[in-house]
Amino acid sequence: MLEPGDPAPEVTARNQDGESITLGFADPTVVYFYPKDFTGGCTIEANDFQDVYPEFEELGVAVYGVSMDDVESHADFAEAEGVLFDLLADPDGTVASAFGVPTDEGHTGRVTFLLGDGDVVATYDPALADPAGHAREVLDDARNEFGGA
């Protein structure tokens, strides 16, 4: 798994609208991997990131959620939960592999990366804690790293 200081990989995946998105991570970015749409912890985590998403936007930090679900599942999940940031479909695990995130039977591990200037700034393993509050922790670190009040 990528660690702080490692170069961020360039990845391409389709979002919930079917658009192809290529990320090079020159700009501050959060990429969080989650196991599956519409499951308890994953829904909590998505809502947690959505709650603080305007603050990430104000700071100039993009947010992307990634799972092995397909575009259609992401579209349904984003609509049901009011998710305004991109959810990237990674059905073959290519994006997860680029980050070194483990996959098992169609699910990714739960891990979050804070990236900037093309490098990994921080790595988080919210699987070890309650997904609620995780987004705020990442936001606080992004503020410390990239400025802002």
Describe the structure.
With 149 residues, the protein is an alpha/beta fold. 34% of the residues lie in helices and 26% in strands. It has helices spanning 40-59, 71-81, 94-99, 134-146; strands spanning 11-14, 20-23, 29-33, 62-67, 86-89, 103-104, 107-108, 111-116, 119-124. The model has no long low-confidence stretch (mean pLDDT 92). The chain has 4 helices and 9 strands, in the order βββαβαβαββββα. Helix 1 packs parallel to helix 4. Helix 2 (71-81) links the parallel strand 4 and strand 5. It is globular, with a radius of gyration of 14 Å. The strands form 3 sheets. A 5-stranded mixed beta sheet has the order 5-4-3-8-9. It has a two-stranded antiparallel ribbon with strand order 1-2. It has a two-stranded antiparallel ribbon with strand order 6-7. The protein has one domain: Glutaredoxin.
The CATH superfamily is known as: Glutaredoxin
CATH class: Alpha Beta
For the CA atoms, what is the radius of gyration? 14 Å
Q: Beta-strand percentage?
A: 25-35%
In terms of quaternary structure, what is this?
A: single chain
Q: Number of DSSP strands? A: 9
- Terminal CA distance reads 31 Å
Structural class: alpha/beta
The assigned CATH architecture is 3-Layer(aba) Sandwich
Round the mean pLDDT to the nearest integer and report it: 92
The number of helical segments is 4
Low-pLDDT parts are none
Helix % is: 25-40%
- CATH names the topology as Glutaredoxin
Catalytic activity: a hydroperoxide + [thioredoxin]-dithiol = an alcohol + [thioredoxin]-disulfide + H2O
InterPro entries: AhpC/TSA, Peroxiredoxin_BCP/PrxQ, Thioredoxin-like_sf, Thioredoxin_domain
Pfam families: AhpC-TSA
Keywords: Antioxidant, Disulfide bond, Oxidoreductase, Peroxidase, Redox-active center
